[in-house]
Q: What sequence folds into this?
């Protein structure tokens, strides 16, 4: 990530992706604390924009292959990766004997790092079937594990809250 300060920029903050890097443009007069706050806001905003684009099954498979290469030296090789609509209590599942990975459709629209975490989690199951210490050591390679797990825990907690009826005009 790169922060670029501009004397010509007086109030606006913007961000965009440039290859593998994120560029955040801020006014030169902004304090370091404001910079940190705006960087977080803009990274979240970019992630939300990117998550609105739903990957198809072939793109999901391609993403899983990229993540396997990045975090497991390509040793986790799924035979199929697809979205499913019949998974309402799990975010993902894996059948190591077949090499198949299934992700719940409920992940669609969530931030990219959350979907990536679930993919990395299921890819790790291709290497280690259970949730023992060896499995969790593999997941330590993914830097946003705790953040993604927190996000998913928040979604589960929000789903348990009573939903008030929406009224118009109030």
A:
């Amino acid at each position: 990530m790169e922060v670029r300060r501009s004397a010509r920029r007086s109030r606006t903050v913007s961000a965009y992706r440039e290859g593998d890097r994120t560029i955040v443009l801020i006014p030169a007069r902004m304090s370091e604390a404001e910079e940190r706050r705006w960087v977080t806001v803009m990274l979240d905003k970019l992630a939300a924009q990117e998550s609105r684009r739903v990957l198809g099954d072939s793109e999901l498979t391609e993403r899983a292959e990229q993540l396997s290469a990045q975090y497991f030296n390509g040793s986790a090789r799924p035979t199929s990766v697809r979205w499913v609509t019949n998974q309402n209590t799990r975010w993902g599942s894996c059948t190591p004997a077949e090499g198949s990975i299934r992700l719940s459709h409920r992940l669609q629209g969530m931030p990219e790092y959350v979907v990536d975490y679930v993919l990395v989690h299921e890819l790790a199951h291709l290497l280690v079937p259970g949730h023992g210490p060896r499995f969790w050591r593999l997941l330590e390679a993914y830097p946003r594990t705790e953040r993604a797990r927190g996000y998913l825990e928040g979604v589960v907690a929000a789903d348990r809250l009573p939903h008030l009826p929406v009224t118009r005009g109030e």
Observations:
- The chain has a mean pLDDT of 88.
- The CA atoms of residues 147 and 153 lie 10 Å apart.
- The beta strands are 2-6, 14-18, 21-27, 80-84, 92-95, 100-104.
